[in-house]
Amino acid sequence: MAQPVTFLFTDIEGSTEILHRLGVAYGVVLAEHRALIRRAASDHGGVEVDCRGDEFFLTFADAASAGRAAVDAQRAIAVHSWPNDGQVRVRMGLHSGTAELGSEGYVGIDVHRAARICATASAARCGYRSDCG
Fold it and tell me: Is the pTM for the entire model greater than 0.85?
């Protein structure tokens, strides 16, 4: 039976460029990024469905919790001290809908919609900026 859920997908913008620039130090960026995303999701009741490389797939019981998690994560990422005085931007896509929860995870068109929303996002345009209040 399809369940209502809010999906949050995240992805480090320009991760390949960051990897080329930092080399093995990129591992530190990846670990710190994961910790910040996981903390924000956990604080708002999020469930980690999948994490591959620099991408997350999270679910929330409601859109408000997902939105708060996304904002908290963006704030934490914006003020974090990254290696080599670098900057990390994370695009995020939120979408509420329904999906079947099976043995392989969530399946449904709304999962794909949420992933597409994230893929078209630009952290430079829509990410948290400290000058936005």
Answer: no
